[in-house]
Design goal:
Elements lengths: L8 H8 L6 H21 L3 H17 L6 H8 L2 H9 L37 E10 L9 E6 L18 E5 L5 E7 L4 E2 L5 H6 L7 E2 L2 E7 L6 E7 L18 E2 L2 E3 L2 E2 L5 E2 L3 E10 L4 H5 L1
Parallel strand pairs: 1-13, 8-9
Antiparallel strand pairs: 1-4, 2-3, 2-7, 5-6, 7-8, 10-13, 11-12
Bound molecules: benzoic acid (BEZ) and fe (iii) ion.
Benzoic acid binds next to helix 4.
């Protein structure tokens, strides 16, 4: 092996990291070494700056617990989470696009009948979401599961409330004609957690730390690719600057204001409320994959 110079160091490191039997790990580590060296060659950090970066990563790791994942948040605000999501969910034209799941999904939400209220007792303006779940061929999908979660009308998720019962989340099931009816409240935009190392970094930028108002959905039906996505409120002040790059054009919906009166779920609502209409489209899995 030739001795090290500034000029040959990257090639030497790449060559050394070829010594990995697993071909995928070898590919990953070769790219990691190559791009990390390119980054350092471009930035030329001082020792103090390199230590500051290592210190930031160390403190980011120290913040991670079962309830908090600061590295995922870092990946979210850098746009990496949405890129990984896009690469792994290249769906057929017309299928509902995906977005990141985010940290607030809770497994095991109660199953509610169509039209039941998942925001019982929560603050906020009433909102009814109606639509269908269909395949890309337009055929309705019966019995699709819609796992739904969102903030209440004060911008808080269950994890941010001191509650013992499920809060602002439920599972609905599409009817025989593919239709669903959800009663909830209008979500509002909120800030990502700013009290950690990601917040510390964001405060040194002029980047918005807000997410536009949205409702999260995880849709599943046998034989179809699952879809994790959000519906965003058109006109939201943060729609063009979502801090986690989650907004896709096909996921922006109108929240149509309605006068007090009878809602599509049969409820009499004695204040103005909002109606959202959306048809989800799922792509069938390949036959071979579906059989597997
Ligand atoms: C969310 O929508 O719940 C979320 C997604 C990514 C980072 C923070 C929050
Ligand atoms: Fe969210």
């Amino acid at each position: 092996m030739p001795y090290v110079t500034e000029a040959n160091l990257t090639d030497l490191a790449i060559e050394r990291w070829q010594q990995i039997p697993d071909p995928r790990l070898r590919q990953v580590m070769t790219a990691a070494v190559k791009h990390l060296h390119a980054f350092v060659r471009e930035v030329e950090p001082t020792p103090e700056e390199w230590f500051a970066a290592i210190d930031w990563l160390t403190r980011t790791g120290q913040l991670c617990t079962e309830k908090r994942q600061e590295f995922i948040l870092a990946s979210d605000v850098l746009g990496v989470s949405m890129l990984v999501d896009a690469i792994n969910n290249r769906r057929a034209t017309g299928a509902t696009p995906t977005t990141v799941e985010g940290p607030f999904h809770v497994h095991g939400s109660p199953e509610l009948a169509n039209g039941q209220n998942m925001a019982e007792g929560a603050p906020g303006v009433p909102c009814i979401v109606v639509g269908t779940v269909r395949g890309t061929d337009g055929q309705p999908i019966a019995g699709a599961l819609l796992d739904v979660w969102q903030t209440d009308g004060e911008g808080l998720y269950e994890a941010q409330r001191a509650v013992d019962e499920p809060w602002m989340r439920a599972v609905y099931r599409s009817a025989a004609d593919g239709s669903f009816v959800i009663r909830t409240v209008v979500p509002i935009g909120y800030t990502i957690p700013m009290d950690g190392t990601v917040g510390e970094l964001m405060k040194r930028t002029t980047i918005s730390h807000m997410r536009p108002a949205h409702i999260h959905f995880h849709l599943q039906a046998p034989g179809y690719h699952p879809v994790i996505t959000h519906l965003f409120r058109r006109g939201d002040e943060y729609i063009d600057t979502d801090v986690v790059f989650g907004v896709k054009e096909q996921l922006i919906v109108d929240f149509e204001e309605q006068p007090p009166g009878k809602a599509p779920n049969g409820d009499m609502i004695d204040e103005p409320w909002y109606l959202v209409r959306y048809d989800f489209v799922l792509e069938r899995k390949q036959q071979a994959a579906a059989a597997a």
